[in-house]
């Protein structure tokens, strides 16, 4: 029979009658949810769903402040099946007529008068604004959060009411917050510590027992603990005696949407006073007094030891093997030890670093030992060193993606230097360095848009002769997205060393360039000052590059580039070494692969540059 035929989903046509886009979206979402139920239903069920669709339209209008609308739903048919034509005459939109915020509990004492006044000033849903359900909920939850986040952790919303006057289309809002007693932080308790000593927790969770409760402090302590290598998770809170109490019946909000079947259709969701279970202070608490609650830190410790390794290959160093062993508690102390090695044809390194956990100001201190040997372009250097570093990392204000890094270092080193066809000597030095870096990119490891700038320098002295030396360096890079996948990159670097002409400075203080990540088309670090049969560090450096990368898809691409620069005795002595070429770009699961063919104009030579790393 026709009445029993299965129905298709009806087509919805809404005449909004001048309601704003937010209200139309709420109506569309509500009606679409019901229309989906119309598929494969018989005729009797379809009639019931039409009534539900009209009621849902009325309820959606009420959430946007329209409490006296006229809504019609006419069913029809077209070539595709049934249609629902919904016509709306919204009527006058309800606005907030008055706001009454009341407070009870300890917060009513004279010392909190300024805070109460500010709470009233910061109330989000003010007189004259449209009465919108989501704004009403947000204003209440924000008010409760502002009270309970400091001093009054046990604060509750004891009443919230919105009385709608249909004739004047106005809403009278009333909210009552019971602050409860003033909460102070008591003794520190920890849970979950096994290997990590408790003094590590005390390094971050710093306060004097009896201090006023402040949720921002608890959040900061929790984030600091989670940022260390010692814990996989951390949670900091105040212990709350008593269990969650059943919520009161949902009768606090009295704004009812026309056509709704019960109060819940018009009750703002998320109201702490009308939904869910909530912790209530035990009856023994004096709402006008004070209470001290212990600070509890619960942690899950990270694995104590970790071993990683990697194999890489590039055009200059050939095969490279690296290994790292990490242990995050050393001799029962809250230290992280990292020790490892890296070996390739040009350089061999063995090191042991000890990293202290970040302090309350975010400084990450470390110290370590190093053995390093390199033989590059006729300069053979063996270094034994003891160093210390302080690193501070911080984010930009608000939701900014900007990141800042500041690094200070001190290095005591003894270098054994051999120059092919020339001198051999021992160079003991003490050097202090500093670098400031600002990074603003869309992706830290594969940027398409943004910029990076770093400024650094250092001062040092040769310990055998007492001669000083100084260095400054600036580098910058900028990425511009072109189309959906392409990238234009410009980078530059400039550096200068000041010293007596007879002073020998450490190899890493002078400047050499050339190779895959500097000036392509030339051998690695082959551009510098020629001394005997070797290339040694120069007092000045200037490098620039422009590159355009075109990607055929998310994985495969190609690039064209021009690099230029020099490292010389002075900027006036420079003769730019230019390199240009093309390259392949491949994003692989093992890491990015760069394969460039570049022509070095100064050497009149064509060189292949490539690099790939695999972690294991």
UniProtKB/TrEMBL annotation:
<dbReference type="InterPro" id="IPR000184">
    <property type="entry name" value="Bac_surfAg_D15"/>
</dbReference>
<feature type="region of interest" description="Disordered">
    <location>
        <begin position="241"/>
        <end position="283"/>
    </location>
</feature>
<feature type="domain" description="Bacterial surface antigen (D15)">
    <location>
        <begin position="429"/>
        <end position="616"/>
    </location>
</feature>
<dbReference type="Pfam" id="PF01103">
    <property type="entry name" value="Omp85"/>
</dbReference>
<protein>
    <submittedName>
        <fullName>Translocation and assembly module TamA</fullName>
    </submittedName>
</protein>
<keyword id="KW-0472">Membrane</keyword>
<dbReference type="GO" id="GO:0019867">
    <property type="term" value="C:outer membrane"/>
</dbReference>
């Amino acid at each position: 029979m026709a009445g029993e035929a299965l129905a298709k989903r009806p087509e919805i046509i809404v005449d909004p009658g001048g309601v704003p886009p937010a209200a139309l979206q709420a109506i569309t979402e509500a009606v679409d949810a019901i229309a989906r139920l119309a598929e494969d239903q018989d005729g009797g069920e379809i009639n019931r769903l039409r009534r539900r669709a009209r009621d849902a339209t009325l309820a959606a209008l009420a959430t946007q402040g329209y409490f006296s609308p006229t809504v019609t739903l006419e069913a029809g048919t077209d070539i595709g099946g049934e249609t629902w034509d919904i016509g709306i005459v919204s009527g006058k939109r309800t606005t907030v007529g008055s706001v009454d915020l009341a407070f009870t509990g300890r917060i009513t004492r004279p010392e909190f008068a300024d805070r109460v006044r500010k709470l009233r000033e910061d109330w989000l849903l003010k007189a004259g604004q449209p009465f919108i359900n989501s704004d009403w909920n947000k204003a209440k939850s924000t008010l409760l959060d502002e009270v309970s986040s400091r001093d009054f952790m046990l604060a509750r919303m004891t009443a919230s009411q919105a009385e709608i006057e249909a004739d004047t289309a106005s809403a009278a809002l009333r909210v009552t917050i019971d602050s409860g007693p003033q909460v102070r932080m008591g003794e520190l308790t920890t849970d979950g510590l096994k290997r990590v000593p408790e003094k590590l927790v005390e390094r971050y969770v710093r306060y004097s027992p009896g201090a006023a409760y402040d949720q921002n402090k608890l959040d900061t302590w929790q984030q600091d603990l989670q940022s260390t290598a010692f814990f996989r998770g951390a949670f900091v809170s105040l212990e709350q005696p008593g269990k969650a109490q059943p919520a009161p019946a949902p009768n606090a909000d009295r704004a009812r949407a026309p056509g709704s079947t019960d109060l819940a259709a018009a009750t703002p969701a998320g109201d702490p006073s009308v939904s869910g279970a909530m912790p209530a202070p035990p009856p023994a608490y004096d709402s006008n007094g004070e209470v001290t609650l212990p600070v509890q830190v619960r942690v899950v410790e990270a694995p104590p030891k970790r071993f990683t390794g990697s194999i890489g290959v590039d055009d200059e160093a050939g095969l490279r093997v690296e290994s790292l062993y990490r242990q995050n508690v050393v001799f029962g102390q809250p230290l992280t030890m990292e020790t490892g090695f890296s070996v390739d044809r040009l350089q061999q390194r063995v090191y042991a670093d000890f990293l202290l956990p970040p302090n309350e100001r975010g400084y990450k201190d470390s110290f370590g030992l190093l053995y390093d040997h390199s033989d590059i372009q006729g300069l053979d250097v063996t270094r034994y060193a003891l160093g210390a570093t302080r690193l501070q990392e911080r984010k930009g204000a608000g939701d900014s993606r900007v990141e800042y890094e500041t690094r200070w270092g001190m290095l005591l080193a003894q270098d054994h230097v051999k120059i092919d066809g020339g001198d051999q000597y021992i160079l003991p030095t003490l050097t202090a360095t500093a670098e400031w870096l600002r990074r603003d990119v869309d992706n830290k490891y594969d940027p398409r848009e943004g910029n990076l700038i770093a400024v650094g320098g250092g001062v040092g002295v040769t310990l055998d002769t007492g001669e000083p030396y100084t260095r400054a360096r600036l580098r910058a890079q900028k990425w511009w997205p072109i189309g959906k996948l392409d990238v234009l990159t410009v980078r530059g670097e400039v550096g200068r060393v000041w010293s007596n002409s007879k002073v020998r400075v450490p190899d890493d203080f002078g400047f050499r360039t050339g190779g895959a990540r500097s000036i392509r088309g030339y051998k690695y670090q082959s551009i510098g000052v020629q001394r005997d049969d070797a290339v040694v560090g120069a007092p000045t450096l200037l490098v620039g590059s422009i590159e355009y990368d075109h990607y055929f898809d998310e994985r495969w691409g190609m690039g064209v580039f021009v690099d230029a620069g020099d490292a010389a005795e002075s900027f006036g002595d420079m003769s730019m070494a230019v390199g240009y070429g093309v390259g392949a770009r491949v994003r692989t699961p093992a890491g990015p692969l760069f394969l460039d063919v570049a022509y070095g104009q100064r050497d009149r030579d064509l060189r292949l540059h490539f690099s790939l790393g695999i972690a294991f």
